[in-house]
Each structure stands twice: as C-alpha cells, then as structure tokens.
What we know:
209 residues, 2 domains, five-stranded parallel sheet, 8 helices, Rossmann fold
Amino acid sequence: MNQLVLPLELRPARGRADFIVVPGNREAVAFIDSYPGWPAPAAALHGPPASGKSHLAAVWAMRAGARVMAASDLSGPAPEGPLVVENAERLASEAALFALMERGTPLLLTAEAAPADWRVALPDLVSRLRAMLSFALWAPDDQLLEALAAKLFADRQLQVPKAVITHMIARLERSPLAIRDFVARADARALAEKRPINLGLIRDLLAEG
Length: 209
C-alpha cells in the first residue's frame, strides 16, 4: 500500500548564496549586486516562470529594504521607498506605474517578457519601458538546467546523484517550469512508494510522460 503524502509547505531557499549564477544570468546578478550604484533608478528582470526572477528580486528587496507587491495591486499611490513590482506586464493601472517611475525611487520590475514587449497604451509609459534597463534570466544550457534541478531537490532536503539529474534533464522539456513540476512529482512518488530518487524512479516517471 502506498504511503499517504501530505501537502507540506515548501520554503525554497531565497538567499543570495542560493541563487544559481551561470553565463545566461550573470549580467542580471551583477546588476543586482551593484546596488546602490545603479546607473538608473528602475530596471526589470524578465524570463519564463520559475526562472529565478522572484528569487533575485527577493535578494534585492532584502538588500535595499524594498517592499514587494503584485502589479495587479498597483492601482493608486505606491508605498514610499524602494519597491519590487512582480508580474509587471499584468498592470492594474498604467498611470500608477508611470507615476511610480516618475518618482525616481529605486524600482525593480519582474515579468515574463521584456518591458519593450508589454502591451501598454500610455505613450509616455511606452517610451519609458522601451528605454528601461532590462535583464533576461533564462538561457537553457545544460549547466543551468542541472543546477536548477539540484537546487529544487535540495529545497526539499533531497540529495540526488548528478548522474540521475543529468539523465532527467536530457529527457525533459527545457523549461524551468517543467523541471520544477517533475522534481515535485519525483519527490511525491519517492515518498509514496518509500523509494530513493534514483535512475529507476526517474525512468518510471519519464515513461509515464
């Protein structure tokens, strides 16, 4: 009989030392690390889901003493001081974001697409977004994919052999979301069947699609 798996809260490691630095995101990390010596008060981090935008934004928020809020909640005057606005392409109010950028206080935006590609209508905001500093956080090389998988397992207090991770990555969709979902499935299966996460378990999951 399979063991019942209880849905426990997962708390990913979000410190600076926990962020995976590879060539594809090194420029973004260097920019965050350079604070408060930024050349402009506002910047954006963009990439697909689970690519590390919120992690790196949390690192900056801790360093800058910044508040964090969702763009869908930005409909009026924003809190004073440094601010992170998550999912910034899903704005509740273009005028509120423009006013925030006009304020000139430190601002970090996160989004899936680069700011120049956001669908906004306010002409002044369009100009600001096209000129904004922005940094991509995703280039799916094997080094990053394997490091991401290892971190996701480690967040669950699981140490998985590198050979197992390499086999897994070679056969999964090359996206951070796919890797995150597969790691969760592997953890759940291992708990339910009281098995280690080894090549056998990974092959069983991969065969299921």
